[in-house]
Design a protein that fits this description.
CATH topology: Rossmann fold
CATH superfamily: P-loop containing nucleotide triphosphate hydrolases
Oligomer: single chain
Bound molecules: adenosine-5'-diphosphate, magnesium ion
Number of domains: 1
Radius of gyration: 19 Å
Strand content: 25-35%
Helix content: 25-40%
Shape: globular
Number of strands: 12
Length: 264
């Protein structure tokens, strides 16, 4: 797919300030349809704040966000909910919902399409390996099981035959997931990306970010340090600037990938 001229999300001078503290400072960026973008950076650098701004969950104090060339605050809630879905970093639900009911919450924007809603929820229950849990009380699940329930809900919200206009924002989606379920998640993301889905996610593991992303955003002290393809972004210099430590880059010919290791 030609993604070069096909911008899905655009931010201009995007700024978010709380009590004179910049959480996001003057970020102008363009994310194209079909991109898989990972955001990396130290704790507190603004990654979750940027995700909330991209999703419209919070409003910038300066600058703007456009989705599909339309200012985010011009979208009506239901239409926007069908186009972009967000997995927050913290998803605490203390009410004893059943797993199936939480997945169904994602279909709220489609309340008059019950037949399809049911099929879609079943499909996502299978995709996230939740068949044995559908009637379980959510509060009794393990961290990884809860995370899979929220992932199923997030994908049910944008589920469609065509993902070309859709974007999913995932803030640390691999949290609590074992390696098999991490693998299943990324396999699923790639399948949907082939159908046009745009993916923006926060990942802590740099090696994983290199492995699964087409582009990488480096965030440092609320500012954009770099946004480019993995080849240009992942350099020892940029990593040092980003994390203030020395890291080595080993190139694996077998994998045709860079691997980041601690410097001895
Ligand atoms: P990251 O996801 O990169 O770890 P966050 O975007 O969650 O970072 O937060 C960026 C910084 O802003 C952190 O230092 C955090 O403590 C601070 N912060 C987040 N929300 C608020 C708020 N509502 N008021 C004040 N500071 C906040
Ligand atoms: Mg965060």
């Amino acid at each position: 797919m030609d993604t070069l001229n096909n911008k899905l999300i655009e931010s201009k001078n995007l700024t978010y300030k709380v009590n004179d503290k910049f959480l996001i400072n003057d970020i102008s960026i363009q994310i194209n349809q079909g991109d898989i973008v990972s955001i990396i950076g130290p704790n507190g650098s603004g990654k979750s704040t940027l995700m909330k701004l991209f999703s419209g969950e919070i409003n910038p104090t300066n600058g703007y966000i456009k989705i599909q060339n339309k200012f985010i605050n011009e979208w009506d809630m239901i239409s926007l909910a069908k186009e972009r879905s967000i997995l927050s970093q913290t998803n605490n639900l203390s009410f004893p919902f059943k797993v199936i009911d939480i997945v169904k919450m994602g279909r709220y924007p489609y309340f008059n399409d019950q037949n399809n809603n049911h099929k879609i929820c079943e499909l996502l229950i299978r995709k996230f390996d939740l068949k044995d849990y559908i009637n379980r009380n959510y509060t009794t699940l393990s961290g990884g099981e809860k995370q899979r329930v929220h992932l199923a809900r997030v994908f049910s919200q944008i589920w469609s035959d065509n993902f070309e206009s859709k974007v999913v924002l995932l803030d640390e989606p691999t949290s609590f997931l074992d390696i098999k379920h991490q693998f299943m998640l990324f396999k699923f993301l790639f399948e949907l990306n082939l159908k046009g889905l745009t993916v923006i996610m926060v990942l802590h593991d740099i090696n994983q970010a290199i492995d699964v992303s087409k582009k990488i955003i480096m965030l440092k002290d609320s500012q954009l340090l770099n946004f480019s393809n993995e080849k240009d972004c992942i350099t020892t210099n940029n990593l040092k600037k980003l994390f203030d430590i020395d890291l080595d880059i080993v190139t694996s010919n077998k994998l045709d990938k860079k691997i980041i290791t601690f410097k001895n």
